[in-house]
């Protein structure tokens, strides 16, 4: 992530916490309150670094109430959405419902959805389009498993997921889209991809977006890295030119740790 001479980033850094299936709605409120207090104590400048959380669906109404009531500058979103608008889809959640709850973002194609729920590239493309249709910005997750990484075909594999996910989007949608590169072998394993691995893939993703949508668009799309991010490795990853933010799992459940990741710039100075 490069900065211009006035200290502004090319794209606004985006630090997102994916709570996964953790935190019931009472615990979720406490976590968000603690995060907001910690960031407020540290005088975090939200205009400089955007912060978002992705709680379970059952927490979203409580999160909305807290964000509105305390006027918090924290965005929130769903961890998944249906490709359909409404109807006989038991257990699914429409993008329209997420919009109504004030969700700004929604995760699409997290590796845990791709593997545990067998979500195909076609379904994920439909979900990406459904998110835009309902005014919610998709965060499209892509990334390879260990075997693919060991075979050395990780760039091709990930770009195939990307191409399928963004198929049929307009350039404006591609510019608004957020893409999260999450190598499956680095998720929840403590095995973090090196900054150069994150940069290699994010540069490849940006080059592919440039091919598909043009350079002006690709220069706007925010690209995140996710996989075993902690406060002590966040700053080094974010120093990379094409990495615009982080999608944090386990460490986002600890408000002090997550706040330190959000405040990565203070570590850039001391690293
Ligand atoms: O999957 C992730 C975020 O979506 C990463 O999870 P961890 O940070 O726990 O490795």
TrEMBL record:
<comment type="pathway">
    <text>Carbohydrate biosynthesis; gluconeogenesis.</text>
</comment>
<comment type="function">
    <text>Involved in the gluconeogenesis. Catalyzes stereospecifically the conversion of dihydroxyacetone phosphate (DHAP) to D-glyceraldehyde-3-phosphate (G3P).</text>
</comment>
<feature type="binding site">
    <location>
        <position position="188"/>
    </location>
    <ligand>
        <name>substrate</name>
    </ligand>
</feature>
<dbReference type="InterPro" id="IPR000652">
    <property type="entry name" value="Triosephosphate_isomerase"/>
</dbReference>
<dbReference type="InterPro" id="IPR020861">
    <property type="entry name" value="Triosephosphate_isomerase_AS"/>
</dbReference>
<keyword id="KW-0413">Isomerase</keyword>
<dbReference type="InterPro" id="IPR022896">
    <property type="entry name" value="TrioseP_Isoase_bac/euk"/>
</dbReference>
<feature type="binding site">
    <location>
        <position position="228"/>
    </location>
    <ligand>
        <name>substrate</name>
    </ligand>
</feature>
<feature type="active site" description="Proton acceptor">
    <location>
        <position position="182"/>
    </location>
</feature>
<keyword id="KW-0312">Gluconeogenesis</keyword>
<dbReference type="InterPro" id="IPR013785">
    <property type="entry name" value="Aldolase_TIM"/>
</dbReference>
<dbReference type="InterPro" id="IPR035990">
    <property type="entry name" value="TIM_sf"/>
</dbReference>
<comment type="subunit">
    <text>Homodimer.</text>
</comment>
<comment type="similarity">
    <text>Belongs to the triosephosphate isomerase family.</text>
</comment>
<dbReference type="Pfam" id="PF00121">
    <property type="entry name" value="TIM"/>
</dbReference>
<comment type="pathway">
    <text>Carbohydrate degradation; glycolysis; D-glyceraldehyde 3-phosphate from glycerone phosphate: step 1/1.</text>
</comment>
<protein>
    <recommendedName>
        <fullName>Triosephosphate isomerase</fullName>
        <ecNumber>5.3.1.1</ecNumber>
    </recommendedName>
</protein>
<dbReference type="GO" id="GO:0016853">
    <property type="term" value="F:isomerase activity"/>
</dbReference>
<feature type="binding site">
    <location>
        <begin position="18"/>
        <end position="20"/>
    </location>
    <ligand>
        <name>substrate</name>
    </ligand>
</feature>
<keyword id="KW-0324">Glycolysis</keyword>
<feature type="active site" description="Electrophile">
    <location>
        <position position="110"/>
    </location>
</feature>
<feature type="binding site">
    <location>
        <begin position="249"/>
        <end position="250"/>
    </location>
    <ligand>
        <name>substrate</name>
    </ligand>
</feature>
<keyword id="KW-0963">Cytoplasm</keyword>
């Amino acid at each position: 992530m490069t900065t211009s001479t006035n200290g502004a980033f090319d794209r606004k850094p985006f630090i997102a916490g994916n709570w996964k299936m953790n935190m019931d709605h009472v615990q979720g409120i406490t976590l968000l309150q603690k995060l907001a207090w910690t960031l407020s104590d540290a005088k975090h400048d939200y205009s400089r670094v955007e912060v978002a959380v992705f709680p379970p669906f059952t927490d979203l109404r409580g999160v909305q109430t807290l964000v509105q009531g305390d006027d918090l500058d924290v965005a929130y979103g769903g961890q998944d959405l249906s490709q359909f608008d409404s109807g006989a889809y038991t257990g699914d959640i429409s993008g329209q419902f997420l919009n109504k709850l004030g969700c700004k973002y929604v995760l699409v194609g997290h590796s845990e959805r791709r593997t545990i729920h067998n979500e195909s590239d076609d379904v994920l493309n439909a979900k990406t389009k459904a998110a835009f249709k309902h005014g919610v910005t998709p965060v499209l997750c892509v990334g390879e498993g260990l075997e693919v990484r060991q075979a050395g075909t990780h760039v091709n594999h990930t770009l195939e997921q990307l191409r399928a996910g963004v198929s049929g989007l307009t350039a404006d949608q591609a510019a608004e889209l957020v893409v999260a590169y999450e190598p499956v072998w680095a998720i929840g394993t403590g095995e973090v991809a090196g900054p150069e691995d994150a940069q290699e893939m994010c540069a490849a993703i940006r080059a592919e977006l440039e091919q598909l949508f043009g350079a002006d668009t690709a220069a706007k799309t925010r690209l995140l890295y996710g996989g075993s991010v902690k406060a002590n490795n966040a700053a080094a990853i974010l120093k990379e030119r094409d990495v615009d933010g982080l999608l944090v799992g386990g460490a986002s459940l600890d408000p002090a740790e997550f706040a330190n990741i959000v405040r990565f710039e203070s570590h850039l100075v001391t690293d």
